[in-house]
């Protein structure tokens, strides 16, 4: 299960209100993309969901249970960082195992999950290499593998492909979409790239200065943008 609800969630840094109170529901199994220009609060909103930032007000629920005061490790959510967040001195296997070690998952269960993740991500032949011996795409898959083995209720991605060159980005986009179809787990994906949003999302959340301008499927936003900002950002004909 992975239904996430935000009720009047807001965030201030000092006197600056970065996220005014907002409501949002992310359904179980949905691929939701937060899109908007740089500085509009996408990362902050994702970090509030992950528990990496405390809310200034409001309530976050995961599968109906209050999660607002839970530390990140207790939220059953896995944040996928950019591939440079891998440990360079550890093998792929150890990088993937790391969160399970922290969570004290038994060794044989660790092995089972690593094998499953490696199969799902085509990394079986690379488990004994170090990140420096992998391509950019493979490193990104290791970062995803590290999230998969936690068997989270939802995956949270913050611009995971922004380090990769254009050609690789297209491939990884397809891989993440395919992974979503296969796992059927909720994914929340942050990007400033309209094409990524329009091609990957079940539901797009368009943000401007911390406000939700519109929520809808790619087709809904394309056909019925609520205002000029959304139309301009999504590239609608209006
Ligand atoms: P995005 O991910 O959409 O580019 P962010 O969520 O990173 O935007 O930032 C939204 C706004 O919040 C920006 O104006 C940024 O400067 C501000 N901000 C983010 N983190 C902090 C922080 N820790 N302290 C103060 N201001 C912050
Ligand atoms: Mg950001």
Automatic annotation (TrEMBL):
Keyword check for Nucleotide-binding: yes
Gene Ontology CC entries for this record: ATP-binding cassette (ABC) transporter complex, substrate-binding subunit-containing; maltose transport complex
Cellular compartments annotated: Cell inner membrane
Keywords assigned by UniProt, alphabetized: ATP-binding, Nucleotide-binding, Transport
Topology class, membrane: Peripheral membrane protein
Domain ABC transporter per the UniProt entry, residue ranges: 4-234
GO molecular function, one term: ABC-type maltose transporter activity
Family recorded in the similarity comment: Belongs to the ABC transporter superfamily.
Protein name: ABC transporter ATP-binding protein
Species whose genome carries this gene: Notoacmeibacter ruber
Whole sequence portion shown: 1 to 238 of 334
């Amino acid at each position: 299960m992975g239904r996430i609800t935000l009720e009047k969630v807001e965030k201030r840094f000092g006197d600056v209100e970065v996220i005014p109170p907002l409501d949002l529901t992310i359904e179980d199994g949905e691929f939701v993309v937060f899109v908007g220009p740089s500085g509009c609060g996408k990362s902050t909103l994702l970090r509030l969901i992950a528990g990496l930032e405390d809310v200034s007000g409001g309530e976050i629920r995961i599968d109906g249970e209050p999660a607002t005061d839970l530390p990140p490790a207790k939220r059953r959510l896995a944040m996928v960082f950019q591939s440079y967040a891998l440990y360079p001195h550890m093998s792929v296997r150890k990088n993937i195992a790391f969160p399970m070690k922290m969570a004290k998952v038994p060794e044989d269960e660790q092995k089972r999950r690593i094998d499953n993740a490696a199969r799902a991500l085509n990394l079986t032949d690379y488990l004994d290499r170090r990140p420096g011996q992998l391509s950019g795409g493979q490193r990104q898959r290791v970062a995803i593998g590290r999230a998969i083995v936690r068997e989270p209720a939802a995956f949270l991605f913050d611009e995971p492909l922004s380090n990769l060159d254009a050609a690789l980005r297209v491939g990884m986009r397809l891989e993440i979409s395919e992974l979503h179809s296969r796992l059927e787990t909720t994914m929340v994906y942050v990007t400033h790239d309209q094409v990524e949003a329009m091609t990957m999302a079940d539901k797009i959340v368009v943000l401007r200065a911390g406000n939700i301008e519109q929520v809808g499927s790619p087709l809904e936003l394309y056909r019925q943008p609520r205002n000029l900002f959304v139309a301009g950002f999504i590239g609608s004909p209006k």
